[in-house]
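Lab channel / #folding
Pinned by the channel admin:
"Please post every new chain as: sequence first, then the structure tokens as a reply. Keep commentary short and put observations after the output so the thread stays searchable."

First post following the new format, from NK:
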Amino acid sequence: AGVHRGMLNGARYILDEWGLRALLRTVPKDYGIRLVGHSLGAGIVTMIGALLAREEEFKGRDLQVTGFGMPACVSPELSERLRPFVTAVVHREDAVPRLSFTNLVRLSEDFNREEEREWCKKQLAEDVNCVWDHLGFSRKEAQQKEEEEAGDAQGAAGAAE
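Reply from TO:
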């Protein structure tokens, strides 16, 4: 099943090198195991949970993983197998959980449609104007200042010749 290799390597490192697996072996069998992470950490604890769930000594244990803002890190097939013990929490428009190579390709295709290009240009123009408003002067004033500075630089270069 497809997984994010970097997150899988991080999970293995934490289990083996940092000793999480050894620590969990000391926890009484009737205690639940709760793994919680945010963003990259959410992906890593998901991998840790998936690895533990496969191991004989952890089968049947009360294992729950909760990831906040988890990036896409497993295939749809593996996601279905993890569903019983992994909960992903997504905050409204958080882009991180929705980013994947497939979604980026789709997004690129969508934004290549004429109506989307026009919408994007309009949104970007509005965003730029908001930045200028936040800075306390208009974009037009900033452009005038840039033109004046460019003229001053050209004048200085001409005088130096």
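NK: The mean pLDDT is 85.
TO: also worth noting, The chain has seven helices and three strands.
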